[in-house]
Amino acid sequence: MKKIYFTVTNDLSFDQRMHRICSALASHGYEVTLVGRNLPTSLPLKERSFAQKRLPCFFKRGKAFYAEYNLRLFFFLLFRRMHIICAIDLDTIVPCLLISKIKRARRVYDAHELFTELKEVVTRPRVHKMWTKIERWAVSQFKNGYTVCQSIAEEFQRRYGVQYDVIRNVPVKRILAATQLPSSPFLLYSGAVNEARGFEYLIPALKHIRLPLVVCGDGNFMPQLKKLVTEHGVEEKVTLLGMLPPDQLWEITRQATIGIGIAENEGLNQYYALPNKFFDYIQAGLPQVTMDFPEYRRINDEYEIAVLITDLKTDTIAAALNNLQEDVVLYTKLKDNCLKAREVLNWEQESKKLLTFYETLS
Question: Is 180 left (phi over 0), alpha (psi -120 to 50) or beta?
Answer without folding.
Answer: beta
